[in-house]
Design brief:
Order of helices and strands: HHEHHEHEHHEHHEEHH
Strand order of the largest sheet: 2-3-5-6
Mean pLDDT: 83
Structural class: alpha+beta
Strand content: 5-15%
Number of helices: 11
Radius of gyration: 39 Å
Number of strands: 6
Shape: elongated
CATH topology: Outer membrane efflux proteins (OEP)
CATH superfamily: Outer membrane efflux proteins (OEP)
Largest sheet: 4 strands, antiparallel
Oligomer: single chain
């Protein structure tokens, strides 16, 4: 892709090399085609990766937490169970003239607690607020998961492209080393040029090994975020060269959309509902008792009323605790809004800077590197520069292309951070 320019130059200087180079490239292409899987590669887009992550253990854990909160709502709406009492008094089984039915007092009655001060509705409001907060937390975790998947996806794409770029260049350099070896053996070229090409080949090989390691680790990280290992024939098909603009969002719309702000708002609602619940607990409930009594052979009805007298414990401490939690939750909400505003401003600034780089600086830099390589190629072809200077131009062009891929990856990362700051799922 890049060092083939050197090969083309050498081919023009030595006609026999053009035939050799052509045959080698044909063999490489045929080998690559033959190596393709019979069923073709599996294509994985960013959207597919995010959708696959919806079945990860982390997502299932969030869904289970929502189900637990739903169980809390169901439990909060249940009324107290009645209680059944069976009781016998004045038992004297050691007495000779004892008769159970005539000499005992027997009770069979039911007690029902009557809740006062709207405790049941207060419990329901508190449980429902907790459910909404849990759902908001689950939605926030899903959004963060999508962001992590997108970040690792673009990292994997860029490292794979860099690895592919270096592999293509190494294959061409190997061809050049073999050609120079043949020229040196024939006495038509200095051994110093061959040695320099071998050093360049080894340097490029080490760079390729590092790039392949980074690409493999990026794929492993992507698989971890998705929740399952990526197969070797899985191709990350979204193009890193695609530059999509992120539309501007107003801060008010962002605050209404951000799930972490929604979580903080629901947390305020939950503690406010807790205050109302704790205040309702200050009012004591009472138990209504009714049933049957047999007293020394006489059948009668039994009734009663039980109620706690709130002389000392009026739930003062819990009311104070819940009221203080309202202040804490409100302060956390205010802090969250300030944090969101800061994140939006920082993400917007970073995205604007990266966008200018990829739209203006990056094309010029790549164009300059290609022109510099072309100039060095013409100079080398005419004998104006030696091989080392031309190799240096080639190395610069490779570094520029590698940096361009990293810059494009960083642009996608900045766009992703801006979308997350806006509360938009990638």
């Amino acid at each position: 892709m890049h060092f083939c320019s050197v090969s083309s130059i050498l081919a023009r200087k030595v006609p026999s090399f053009s035939i050799l180079y052509f045959l080698i490239r044909v063999a490489v292409v045929l080998t690559s085609v033959a190596a393709l899987p019979a069923q073709g590669q599996t294509r994985l887009t960013l959207h597919d990766a995010i959708r696959a992550a919806q079945n990860s253990p982390l997502v299932r854990m969030g869904q289970a937490q929502v189900m637990a909160a739903q169980g809390g709502v169901k439990q909060a709406g249940l009324r107290p169970n009645p209680r059944l009492f069976l009781q016998s008094e004045d038992l004297r089984p050691w007495s000779n003239n004892f008769n159970f039915s005539d000499n005992t007092e027997d009770y069979a009655y039911v007690s029902q607690t009557i809740e006062t001060a709207g405790k049941r509705s207060a419990r329901l409001r508190y449980a429902d607020a907790n459910l909404r907060e849990t759902k908001a937390q689950d939605a926030f975790q899903l959004q963060q998961l999508a962001g992590r998947v997108a970040a690792t996806y673009w990292t994997a794409v860029s490292t794979a492209r860099i690895s592919q770029l270096l592999a293509e260049d190494l294959a061409t350099v190997d061809d050049m080393v073999r050609y120079h070896q043949q020229r040196v053996d024939a006495g038509a070229m200095r051994g110093a040029d061959l040695l320099r090409m071998q050093i360049e080949r080894d340097r490029l090989f080490l760079a390729l090994q590092a790039a392949q390691r980074d690409a493999a680790l990026a794929r492993v990280d992507l698989g971890r975020q998705i929740g399952h290992r990526l197969e070797e024939n899985t191709e990350l098909s979204d193009s890193i060269d695609t530059i999509d603009a992120v539309p501007h969002e107003e801060l008010a719309e962002v605050l209404a959309r951000r799930q972490d702000v929604v979580v903080a708002q629901e947390a305020v609602a939950a503690v406010e509902a807790d205050v109302k619940l704790q205040k309702s607990l200050r009012v004591p409930d009472f138990d209504v008792v009714g049933g049957y009594k047999r007293n020394s052979g006489v059948n009668t009805l039994y009734s009663g009323l039980q109620i706690s007298l709130p002389f000392w414990n009026r739930n003062q401490g819990e009311v104070q605790r819940a009221s203080a939690n309202v202040q804490v939750a409100q302060a956390q909400l205010d802090q969250m809004k300030l944090t969101v505003e800061t994140e939006v401003n920082a993400a917007t600034e970073a995205y604007t800077r990266e966008q200018q780089i990829v739209e203006k600086t990056l094309p010029e830099m790549r164009d300059h590197a290609r022109k510099n390589l072309a100039i060095m190629g013409d100079a080398y072809r005419s004998g104006g520069v030696d091989l080392l200077r031309y190799i240096d131009a080639q190395r610069t062009e490779i570094e520029v292309e590698s940096n361009a891929l990293r810059t494009l990856s960083e642009f996608h990362q900045s766009a992703l951070r801006l979308e997350l700051a806006y509360g938009v799922q990638p």
